[in-house]
């Protein structure tokens, strides 16, 4: 399992300590980390506008012009559901942490035992990373739940991903998804289309009908293979 974690603290030594503790947790819990560190709320927000694909935001409270609690409120006002963990030396804000649905509130100096307990709870509520696809669009990085995908379509040097939430035009090549998505759940119906078997409604000789009523072309030589994969998928439950 891999977690993308943003660490926000205006003290470099605290950022270094938190990273060390998180890595130690990962070594005993089969978790790897992709860290991004920021020394102010403003620096984090500037980055977040282009890259929102974080699993956890660990932040101090007393920092510069925009403190950590103000940052948390802003994120919630914008309907961002990123998990929040406050790590601070101040007890004054504990009650406010509940207002922004924070995962927890850990006091400095941070005790490893306490931090690990919080991370254990976070791990139990976090979906496995392998059900997500991380993609780059014109608006920045996005995280797409694989189960929400209907199909993928090759579009020159890019890929169009049709999902429950809408369509995403991403910079990754179609071949990238052919290699990275599970062959147990995704199958090619045509040289330019890859469909999510879990979201197929029906199959005929000309096309595949998805649960949202959209249709995907199917080549004649693929009909038997796709039908068999469809049956086998539901046999596995």
Describe the structure.
The structure is a single chain. The protein has 237 residues and is an alpha/beta fold. The protein has 2 domains: 2-126, Response regulator (Rossmann fold, 3-Layer(aba) Sandwich), CATH 3.40.50; 130-235, OB fold (Dihydrolipoamide Acetyltransferase, E2P). 32% of the residues lie in helices and 33% in strands. It has 7 helices and 15 strands. It has a 5-stranded parallel beta sheet with strand order 2-1-3-4-5. It has a 5-stranded antiparallel beta sheet with strand order 10-9-8-12-11. Strands 13-14-15 form a 3-stranded antiparallel beta sheet, with helices on one face. Strand 11 (186-190) and strand 12 (193-196) form a beta hairpin. The longest helix has 18 residues, at 12-29. The two termini are 24 Å apart.
């Amino acid at each position: 399992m891999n977690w993308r974690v943003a660490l926000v603290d205006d003290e470099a030594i605290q950022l270094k300590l938190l990273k060390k503790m998180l890595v130690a947790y990962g070594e005993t819990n089969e978790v790897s980390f992709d860290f991004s560190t920021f020394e102010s709320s403003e620096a984090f927000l500037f980055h977040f506008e282009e890259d929102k694909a974080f699993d956890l935001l660990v932040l101090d409270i007393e920092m510069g012009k925009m403190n950590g609690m103000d940052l948390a409120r802003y994120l919630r006002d914008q309907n961002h559901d990123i998990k929040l963990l406050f790590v601070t030396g101040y007890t004054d804000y504990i009650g406010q942490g509940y207002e922004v649905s924070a995962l927890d509130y850990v006091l400095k100096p941070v005790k490893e035992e306490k931090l690990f307990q919080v991370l254990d709870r976070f791990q139990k509520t976090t979906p496995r990373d392998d059900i997500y696809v991380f993609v780059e669009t014109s608006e920045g990085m996005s995280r797409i739940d694989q189960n929400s995908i209907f199909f993928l379509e090759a579009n020159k040097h890019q890929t169009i991903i049709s999902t429950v939430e809408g369509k995403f035009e991403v910079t990754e090549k179609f071949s990238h998804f052919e290699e990275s998505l599970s062959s147990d759940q995704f199958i090619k119906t045509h040289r330019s289309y890859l469909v999510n078997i879990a979201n197929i409604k029906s199959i005929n000789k000309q096309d595949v009908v998805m649960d949202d009523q959209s249709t995907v072309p199917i080549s004649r030589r693929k009909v038997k293979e796709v039908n068999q994969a469809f049956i086998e998928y539901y046999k596995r439950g």
